[in-house]
Amino acid sequence: MALNRAERLRAAVERDGATCIWCGRSFTPLVPPTTEHVVPRVKGGPSWPENEVAACRRCNSDRGHRGPVEWLEECERRGWEPDEPRLARTLAMLLDAIARKGGQRRARPYLDAQLRRLRRRATVGWPGGQLA
Fold it and tell me: What is the pLDDT of residues 41-98, one digit of tens each?
């Protein structure tokens, strides 16, 4: 049975911890979590738990439809502490889910490009550039 949006958000927080993936702020009543699609819906990203993480409203709104690696780098430029290993795990989980479930024709090339870009970061020594 499919989870509704609130249940998927709760599952993401339980799976990943109660901090924003992008800025590292802890979730509180003043900084509530929101559902963030790692591969944006406009790029073909599914509303599956494997494609969703918890982010604060500010980060979710500021990111818009930017790619996850591009936004990760912007967060670092802003002096925030994005969770790159969590991003790498989420992208890998989504890749596995697409292989199992099929479909997602539009998301596949986008996901592949993001994974390549993340691997390049790890090999050129970007700050925090470690793949899980």
Answer: 999 999 899 999 999 999 999 999 899 999 999 999 999 999 999 999 999 999 999 9
The answer to whether residue 132 sits within a structural domain is no
Annotate 70-98 with DSSP letters as a single string. HHHHHHHHTT----HHHHHHHHHHHHHHH
**Any idea which residue has 């599952």 for tokens?**
11
pTM of the model: 0.86
Is residue 78 situated within a structural domain?
Answer: yes
Instruction: Round to whole Å and give the CA distance between 48 and 78.
Output: 29
Domain with 115 in it: 5-124
129, 122 Cβ separation under 8 angstroms: yes
**47 neighbors 9 (Cβ within 8 angstroms):** no
Q: How many domains does the chain have?
A: 1
